[in-house]
Design a protein that fits this description.
Elements: E1 2-6, H1 11-23, E2 27-31, H2 39-44, E3 52-55, E4 60-63, H3 65-75, H4 86-122, H5 128-151, H6 162-176, H7 186-196, H8 202-206
Parallel strand pairs: 1-2
Antiparallel strand pairs: 1-3, 3-4
């Protein structure tokens, strides 16, 4: 069976967990704290980042969330998430890159460091200025998802795609960390409520990161 090395608030691991859930692929979670730079984990992935997927029985090792997603898209026919015409697929990949890089750089990454890693790994308080800037950036990004959803049923087009899973993974972590003001973003909130209702999403909502408590609305599908 596949093993997925991750920690509860890793947005890239969440993207893969949502993908695996949609495709009905079984796996075992293995807790990994990449900031600890554990030797055995760095031996698997010299970048020292989650997620990493391992199938020891087949001697398979997959590294990097986009590479992992592409692997399962190529090897599992069920529930394609990079689909449609070549132009459609290019747009899905563009949006996945947007959320994995721009959203993470501006919003999720700073919040994770300030509100989670600083507390868990260093016992330090967050920087209020960084938190304010990240929350302002979240508003700008949600304005963009509102725009996309004004013109499309799903972020990447007419059907659920990897773009939706990548966006939901980043947004869910940001929401857990109290970084999203949902007022004025009804389009995105409606889309997110739909995703939170899917069976693939429910396991994520029940998990908690030690020393970091989400806001009351976090696991409420009808927030």
């Amino acid at each position: 069976m596949w093993q997925l090395y991750q920690f509860p608030l890793c947005p890239f691991s969440r993207k893969i967990r949502l993908l695996l859930g949609e495709k009905g692929i079984g796996y075992e979670l293995v807790r990994e704290s990449p900031w600890q730079r554990r030797d055995e984990f760095v031996d698997m992935n010299p970048a020292g980042q989650t997620p990493v997927m391992v199938d020891a029985t087949r001697n398979l090792l997959l590294i990097d969330s986009m590479a992992i997603a592409e692997y399962f898209e190529e090897t599992v026919d069920r529930a394609a998430t990079i689909n449609g015409t070549a132009a459609n697929r290019a747009e899905i990949r563009r949006l996945v890159t947007w959320f994995d890089t721009q959203f993470f750089r501006d919003v999720t990454g700073p919040l994770l460091f300030e509100r989670m890693e600083k507390r868990v790994a260093h016992g330090a308080a967050p920087d209020a200025r960084v938190l304010r800037e990240s929350m302002k950036a979240a508003i700008r990004h949600l304005d963009y998802t509102d725009y996309l959803l004004d013109h499309r049923q799903w972020l990447g087009g007419a059907t659920l795609s990897l773009a939706d899973l990548a966006a939901a993974a980043q947004i869910s972590v940001t929401d857990y960390l109290g970084g999203i003001d949902w007022k004025g973003h009804e389009q995105t909130a409606r889309w997110y409520r739909g995703l939170k209702s899917r069976p693939s999403f429910r396991p994520l909502l029940s998990e908690r990161m030690e020393m970091v408590t989400p806001p009351p609305h976090y696991d409420n599908v009808d927030f």
